[in-house]
Sequence to fold (170 residues):
Amino acid sequence: MKKDLFLMPFYLSRLWILSVLVACGVSCALVATRPVQEMSDAVAAIRAAREVQADVLSPDNFRQAMDLFEQAKREYRFKDFAMAKEHADDSRVLAEKAEVDALLNGGARASSDDNIPDPLSGGFQSVKSPSSSSSKPSAEPYIYPTPTPVPAEEMVQRQLQEQNTPNRVK
Fold:
């Protein structure tokens, strides 16, 4: 019993040191900054490269930029922010290089009069304002007819008739 009381401060000091180390580790994890700006810059550069058809006119640089951006997103999800920042920066540089190559190879930016949908948005909205009179009227969505209910007795009779009639394949 006396021996246990003698070792008690030793165990408490170990517990205290362990708790300090855990607290330091958690605080270091909270201090890491997320590369939000770098990811946003990479998305903007890829969008600008796609606008001048860099995926067709400079496919190697554009493909590498997309691959690096996918790696950056993967590292971001796994909380490896240093690697995510590095991949996002490399992706932005390659996307900008692809954009310049595409412009040198004959690619042109679309004029503001063209209806270009945003490739990263959910829907395809036109760039023109809805108040312009030269735009075509939008198509009305198809309204599906409401099915008519069939009574249970009639449905059973239909199923019996289908079972009794032989299937004829020509």
User: Anything to note?
Assistant: The radius of gyration is 32 Å. The helical segments are 2-31, 36-51, 54-57, 59-77, 81-104, 152-164.
